[in-house]
Amino acid sequence: xxxxxxxxACSATVTLDGIEARTVLQCTACSAAVAIPxxxxxxxTPGIAATSVAGGSRLNRCLVCPSTELFVRxxxxxxxxxxxxxxxxxxxxxxxxxxxxxxxxxxxxxxAAVDVVLYLFMPDCLSCYRCGAxxxxxxxxxxxxxxxxxxxxxxxxxxxxxxxxxxx
Length: 168
Ligand SMILES: [Zn+2]
Ligand SMILES: [Zn+2]
Fold this sequence. Notes:
2 domains; alpha+beta; 3 helices; 5-stranded antiparallel sheet; about 170 residues; binds zinc ion
């Protein structure tokens, strides 16, 4: 399983592989370490190693912050999705200006199709509501539900409050 998180000490984005075998997460930029709690990573099937194909590791909580609420999201770079749409729209505008009606709609349709196909083939990843850490991996089972706006809002407000406190 891989993790990508923002270092609590220096805010650098840290990507680490094989976190099942680790006891601490160490920042590659400033060496600040975050201890992984004992029960944070469980096994889907007891007795089968997390690295085996049959078994899958289960994340019980976020490894970076104390949150136990994680949601499944598509591991899809938002900028890429947006870029595809923008390019498709621009190309269709050019075709429209040239009075190529069929080409215009073909481009728009192709743009939508590319987005749908990408979405279907993009793997899932787990993300933490509180700190935004992302977890990826073959053995990682998507045991949590989808994005819950209510939980997201709770953490967003919590964060806003703590920022306000810090500002005083
Ligand atoms: Zn750091
Ligand atoms: Zn977290």
